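anyone seen this seq b4? input:
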Amino acid sequence: MAILSKGQTFASTDTVTSTKLNNLVDNAAFVSGSSGTTDDSSLEVNGSGRLQVKDSGISSAKIAASAITTAKLATATGATDGVTYAKIQHVANMRVIGNTSGSLAAPSEVSILDEDDMVSDSATAVATQQSIKAYTETYVASRYVLDTVKASTSGTSIDFTGIPSWVKRITVMLNGVSTNGTNAIIVRIGAGSFVTTGYVSTSSDAGGADNTTVGFLTTRSISASRIYTGALVISKITGNTWISHGIVGSDTSVYANSGSLALSGVLDRLSVTTTAGTNTFDAGEINISYE
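predicted toks r here
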C-alpha cells in the first residue's frame, strides 16, 4: 500500500543527486483512495494533495464523550442555524421538552393534556389552550348560578333548596314584593332545616332601627299597601358563619340592613318570609343567585 506518491523516480543505475533528493521530497503527495493514505471515509486527499476531513466523515463514534462544548456550537441568529429542530431528538406526540422536577435537572418529555374537565389534576403536565378555555367557561358558568324566579303572590314563605355546598355568596332579590300584613320581611337560611333563631340582625331607615333574632331583616315593619324592591347579600365569612347586608326600599322608605348567623352545618337552603311567619305574600317576584 503506497501512502505517498513519490516526487522523483530512480532507476537502478541513477546517480543520487541533491536535486533528485529535493524533488523526491518536495514533489511527494499523499495517495488518495481507500488503498492509499486514507480510509476515504473519514479522511480524504483533496485536489492539492492535502489531507482533509471528508464531508460527513466524522461519526458520533469518533467524538469523545463531552468533547463538544457549547463554545463550539454556533449561536442561533435565525430559524435555520444553531441547533435546529431537526437536530433535536424526536418527541412523542402531545409532549414538550421541559423540566418539572422541582429543581435543576436535565430536561425530559412533559405531557400535554387536552382535557376539558381537567380530570387528571396533574402537577407536572401542561394543558392545551382549548382545554383551558373549555374548562374555564364551564367552571365560570357553574360557579355563578341564577336560580328560577318565583312569584311571591301566595303563601307565607318563598323557599329555595338544594343550594350547592361550594357556595360562598348568595344574593336575594325582591321585585315589587308585598304581603297582606305589616310584619318585616326577613330571610332565613339553614343546613338541613331552616334556622328560626340566633340571628343578629338590624334594619334601619329614616324613622329608626329594628333588631331581631328570627332572621335577616330586609325591612322594618311594613305597610300592606306598599311594594318592596331591593337585594340582600349573604356571604360566608368563615366556616359555616354567614353575614348579611343589603338595601331594600319602597316609594316611602329605604332600609339598610346587616346581620350574622353561625350555622351548625353547611348551608343548603334559604327562605323569604316575615317575622311573624303568618303574613301571606300577595305581589311581586323573588329570586336568588349564588356563587
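Residues 77-140 form one domain. The radius of gyration is 44 Å. kinda curious what u guys think
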